[in-house]
Specification:
single chain, mainly beta, six-stranded antiparallel β-sheet
Length: 104
C-alpha cells in the first residue's frame, strides 16, 4: 500500500516505484555559533523518505513491493529526481532504483 504525505497542505501519493524524499538541510551554524553563508554550505546527499509508492509492476502484472518505507534515511545521487515544491518546502521524487542506499 502506498504511503501518503499529510504534514503538508496537499496530499501527495507517489505512483508505482516512486519515492518522495526530503533532502536533509545542511548545518547553518558552526559549533561556536557562527552562521555559515548559504553559498559556503555543503549540499548533503542524504534525505528522509516522506512517502513511497505501491511498488514496481512487472510485465505479468505482479507488484514488487518497495524495500523503502516512510521515515527511512537514504543516500541520494548528486543529480536527478524531480523537484516538487509543497508549502515552500522542496521535495524530490525519485524512482526507487535511483536511490543509492538506505542508511541504518
Amino acid at each position: 500500500m502506498a504511503s501518503r504525505v499529510t504534514k503538508f497542505s496537499k496530499t501527495i501519493v507517489p505512483m508505482m516505484d516512486r519515492v518522495l524524499v526530503q533532502r536533509i538541510k545542511p548545518q547553518q551554524k558552526t559549533a561556536s555559533g557562527l552562521y555559515i553563508p548559504e553559498k559556503a554550505q555543503e549540499a548533503l546527499n542524504e534525505g528522509h523518505v516522506i512517502a513511497v509508492g505501491k511498488g514496481l509492476v512487472t510485465q505479468d502484472g505482479k507488484i514488487i513491493a518497495s524495500e523503502l518505507k516512510e521515515g527511512d534515511k537514504v543516500l541520494l545521487p548528486p543529480y536527478g529526481g524531480s523537484a516538487v515544491k509543497v508549502d515552500n518546502e522542496e521535495l524530490l521524487l525519485f524512482r526507487e532504483s535511483e536511490i543509492l542506499a538506505k542508511i541504518q
